[in-house]
Amino acid sequence: MTVWKTSLRNLLAHRGRMALSAVAVVLSVAFVSGTLVFTDTMNATFDKLFAATSGDVTVSPKETGEDEEVSATGRPASLPAGALAKAERAEGARSAEGVVVSMSVTVVNAGNENMGSTTGAPTIASNWTGVDRRSMEVTAGHPPRGPTEVMVDADTADKHGLKIGDELSTLAVTGDHTARISGIAAFEVTNPGAAVVYFDTATAQRVLLGDRGAYTGVVVTAEEGVTHEQLKENVVAAVGSDAYTYRTQAETADDSRQDVAEFMDVMKYAMLGFAGIALLVGVFLIVNTFSMLVAQRTREIGLMRAIGSSRRQVNRSVLTEALLLGVVGSVVGLGAGVGLAVGLMELMGAMGMNLSTSELTVKATTPVIGVALGVVVTVLAAWLPARRAGRVSPMAALRDAGTPADGRAGAVRAVLGVLLTAVGAAALYVASRAEEASAGAGMLALGVVLTLVGFIVVGPVLAGVVVRALSLVVLRLFGPVGRLAERNALRNPRRTGATGAALMIGLALVASLSVVGSSMVASATEELDKSVGADFIVGSDTGQPITPQAAEKVRTADGLADVTEYKMLDIAITTPDGTTLKGETLNAATPSYAEVLRVETTQGELADAYAKDSMSVFAGFAKKHGLRTGDTLRVDFAQGRTAELTVRAVTSDEAVIDKGAMYASIATAERYVAEKDMPLNALMFGSAVDGEEDAAYAALKKALEPYPQYTVRDQADYKQTLQDQVGQLLNMVYGLLALAIVVAVLGVVNTLALSVVERTREIGLMRAIGLSRRQLRRMIRLESVVIALFGALLGLGLGMGWGATAQQLLALEGMKVLEIPWATIGWVFAGSALVGLVAALVPAFRAGRMNVLAAIATE
């Protein structure tokens, strides 16, 4: 009980300094628990949505290999009306209803504004059915009753200011269909962010499928007392076709859940990864805090030992303080985590996915994981300082000799750090020389871990060297005050090394990702300049195929000398050795594509692959299956017949754009795939008449104005798009890494604050012999700046090494240009100096307010 009282007293006595350490625990636990609460809430919400929108038994066409959301043909796979009639007669079926749903549409208002989501969620067009009535409520007007009426969801209506009577046009493969809004329906469950429009069944069949007698699915409702599993068996027996897929409500919900789970898992583990980084940085803050507190309580510890306290009791006292700190920080972190989850839900709402806080889900395991994580990490971080405290001898402590220095341990640490760094650097070198990216990835990961740990371990040694070098450039300009700041930073290299290491981790990740991102953009830009011969690229950012109407607009646009069409077909290939490979893709294009994309070949000429019944394969495929030009492959088109195609060219694996693609002409594909099953153009390319590039660009944009789902880009636009996409991804990552950097800044603040307390008497003496308040504050600010620059220098150097190695691996996949973003690196380094200044504001202000006589009298 005495240990608990002593620990609690010490914790409260240093509550201000402990609070900064607690912030590291709070932030890390908040991120972990917030992530778990958010993902659990999302899962529970989607479970409710899928349960509400799934029929008792659903009959749908078997998957044909094409994208489930957007059909390559513009028409979703369908089944005939006869399937509905048979399902209605199934034993145990109370009712059956035909469903028509398509996500291969675009909906625009009278001003030609796209009503779809801007966050990537699809636009869904459907007939209004009984299943929809279970999840939506008509809040205004009435459901559509004929071809001139359409109903829209309330969220889309609110977002775009739509009201009853407004005109909407649905752009589909069958043509453009215009109708007026007859009703508005609100989701009674979570809106997944999609824009939804409803037609009557006959209109949906005509507009979405071009077939009045077809459905995309049949929903069967069971009679009372009939289980879903029994009804499924009866429906299978009644419909009797293996061309369809039969699912119960639970199975449909499970399939939908798996699609969402992939996205959720990526988000979940990414956020937990950043939480782990913040926690690792927080460890340095906690270690430093307890190390300095132990050093400041040396005499107190000596007195405890002198009156009979054992090493174990002293050790236990420090660990108990850490335990209390961990518990308090974790509990606060749990509350903050729930707040973070609510904030994420609000963010998703702003993006169009409306999540209700009434669905907030906190599983019993979440607080257990959060508290356990915070407590365990805090206690482990305090273990080394506690061990040092236990080793203080009573006589040394009473003489105020401080905690024992172990020169031998320091030497061992230095040797171990250098060894780890050297082995890590060797692993990075091996990774950069790997012949296959998959083989080098493991060495890269090993190298990153070892060099990071090595730099952390050898940090005190590096602090002595790097701080002196930085002082020559930065601190010596400030005369004696600068020299004092240098000596303070060097006084305890272990402390400086640990403080700088916390900042080093976050900046190393920032630097490495910046190098990789810049190299990706530079490589893609170089490849575009080298390989792409077209002036313009037309396509959809959401993956929508180009409808025949829009394609005709491109073909007839003024100023174009040539238009190239590009389709993607699902195929299975059987090689001469009898191996059958399913799930392959054949890129069918017009012959001019050989000029649009200049791909090097290792055998034959790519232009020959566009001849009748010909194709190309890529070098890796050819090598694996022993293929050469002249060999014949059996190609089974997923929605067509079987062809015997001759290999006329083998493309190089060095390509970046369309890497690993196999080509044939559209004319060859049309010989084996019926017109109604032929995929629409995925992309179209235009080449302008010489000297009329600007006029052709303007004409092409004007021609496609009625189709806002498609974008016209010249090569400059395309390069800017690549840069923006990479930039958005990096900004998101930098935002998450900012959490680790914030914790590192708190570490600098804490170190300086405790250092000021530790040097109270020294500061009083310096003031007594003439050091002004201004000079004192400047000394502390300069000390902070040099520590921050030390961490930044190590982090940026380490990160650029990681990034350059990663680029060498990615060069095997075609990313051949190494681009160091010197401007970004420079701004980060300068920003680190600013971080140091900001971190020193409070400690410097408190030091300047010290009473000189009281400070001198301090023991």
From TrEMBL:
InterPro entries: ABC3_permease_C (IPR003838), MacB_PCD (IPR025857), Macrolide_Exporter_MacB (IPR050250). The keyword Transmembrane helix applies. It comes from the Bacteria. The chain crosses the membrane at residues 269-295, 322-344, 364-386, 407-431, 443-475, 496-516, 732-757, 782-804, 824-845. Signal peptide: none annotated. Residues 274-394, 736-851 form the ABC3 transporter permease C-terminal domain. It is a multi-pass membrane protein. Residues 19-236, 499-690 form the MacB-like periplasmic core domain. Keywords: Cell membrane, Membrane, Transmembrane, Transmembrane helix. It is found in: Cell membrane. Belongs to the ABC-4 integral membrane protein family. This is FtsX-like permease family protein. The lineage of its organism: Bacteria, Bacillati, Actinomycetota, Actinomycetes, Kitasatosporales.
